[in-house]
Amino acid sequence: MKLLKKNLLIFSLFMITLLITTVGCSATAEDAQAENKLEEIQASGKLVLGTSADYPPYEFYAEIDGELQIVGFDIDIAKEIAKDMGVELEIVDMQFDGLLAALVADNIDMIVAGMAATEERKESVDFSTSYYEAEQTMLVRKEDYEKFQSISDLEDHRIGVQMATVQEGIAQEQVSNAKEIKSLGKISDLVLELNYGNIDSIILVDTVAMAYAENNEDLTLSQISFGKEDGVAAAVAKGHEEFLASVNQTLERLIADGSIDQFIEDAVILADQQNQE
Questions:
Q1: CATH fold group of domain 37-133+231-276
Q2: Which of 148, 215, 224, 263 could anchor a disulfide with 76, C-beta 3.0 to 4.6 Å?
């Protein structure tokens, strides 16, 4: 009987040791997986991007050389991130409200979708360096530059905005005393209206306004600012520090050399070309 008890005790101690070892190995494996997400992506040869391609000029569908593709300045940024990692970019288009869940479930590797890095979202994912924080401004005719120095100067004037955008909301909330708020589907149509004198200004993010001013010698950015929108960033699952560092390294390069500004300008023009076809 004593021998049996002794054997049971030894067996119990062995099982406890085995359980502790197994749990410890499992935790170590999970830590290694978190640390080696970058290596995992590089080994697979592809970076799986989650986005919602309904938000030009960030990401949208366009026909390029007869083929429908997802394009936009977010996509250009993601391509650079993938290139620096030495892998191909694979794009998964889904509804915006499903992106975070897909990232947490490891169905995608990264989100680049005009997503603001809010405190609530930071509870479930990690965000990169902010790569875009546009100022809301106005495009006006050069001859009217001195006329519009503050929001109060817009009273009884005709304001143009793109339909169903943040800028439309700004006009309705901050320029309620305007003579008219004209909402159109395409920025290019608003620019024509401005050139023809049918409206007095267009509310746009600064990068978009600059792109149109550069291509229209009679137009310029106004002195008026409606403030900045929330900065947007790339999102990755929590714990992947090396992966996030690689993403940030690419973003910092693109910010420093002005590539992102060029991506934005190109995407705005491409989006308008698609609307005209």
A1: D-Maltodextrin-Binding Protein; domain 2 (3.40.190)
A2: 263
The amino acid that residue 162 corresponds to is Q
- Residue 131 near residue 200 (C-beta atoms within 8 A): no
Region of 87 on the Ramachandran plot (φ > 0 left; ψ -120 to 50 alpha; else beta): beta
Tell me the backbone φ, ψ of residue 215, rounded to 5 degrees.
-100, 5
Q: What 3-state class would DSSP assign to 57?
A: coil
What's the Cα-to-Cα distance from 15 to each of 4, 141, 274, rounded to whole Å?
16, 81, 66
Of 194, 204, 128, the closest CA to residue 167 belongs to 204
Tens of pLDDT, residues 157-168 = 999 998 767 788
Q: Which of 31-40, 76-85, 103-112, 216-225 has the lowest mean pLDDT?
A: 31-40
136-221: CATH homologous superfamily?
Periplasmic binding protein-like II (3.40.190.10)
- Residue range 213-264, pLDDT digits in tens: 877 899 999 999 998 866 789 999 999 999 999 999 999 999 999 999 999 9
